Amino acid sequence: MTTTKTITVEQTGSAIGRPERQRKTLLGLGLTRIGRRRTLEDTAAVRGLIAKVSHLVKIVDGK
Where are the domains of the chain? Predict the structure, then answer.
């Protein structure tokens, strides 16, 4: 049995008026509106996506 580390992110900023690349990054993270939270695997790829839109999201919990 393997335990996978997870990270929970919450969208804090709007995608309105943002470049298409940032909007697609939010969709890739599964975030579609302010206040929405997603629990994702804590991988380098996910961390990279979060870094690209760090001004629009916050990390709520990382286990």
Answer: 6-62
CA distance 55 to 63: 22
Is the Cβ–Cβ distance between 40 and 20 less than 8 Å? Answer: no
**51 to 3, 16, 45, 48, 62: CA distances (angstroms):** 24, 19, 10, 5, 15
Does domain 6-62 correspond to CATH entry 3.40.50.970?
A: no
pLDDT in tens, the chain (63 residues): 567 899 999 999 999 999 999 999 999 999 999 999 999 999 999 999 999 999 999 999 866
How many angstroms separate the CA atoms of 23 and 7, rounded?
20
